[in-house]
Specification:
The chain is mainly alpha-helical. It contains 7 helices and no strands. The protein has a domain of 98 residues. The longest helix has 35 residues.
Amino acid sequence: MGTRYEQDVVAWAREQAELLRAGKFSAIDVEHIAEEIEDVGKSEQRELSSRMAVLLAHLLKWQYQPGRRGSSWQPTIREQRRAVGVGVALQKTPSLNTSLRDSGRLTGTWADAVSKAAEEQGLDAFPEELSWSTEQILSAKFYS
């Protein structure tokens, strides 16, 4: 049948929050709470990577297909820059700034972006390696 955590994570979370607020520390599910807290950080990392991939894909399309620049590309570029540079990375979770400069993480994000851009545009002539700096990528003056 499984534990309360396995049966209904939402009910389990409410129960654990009540136990914490009541100071009943010996009754809390420490292991699963620790997992859930770690998952919050992983979720933020995924959000950052996803937004960066969308941003990079649109920057690729902007650079490599000037004749096909759509009216939605600029707003998407601005929105993703805003979300990454202001919302997600810099103000709400400043520790994610290291992810923006982590070459290993950016390599995976770049591969996702190239795949997205190629899929959306039917092209495969995009560079294999990221040549833009984080500062360029997030700059309102760069490809906008």
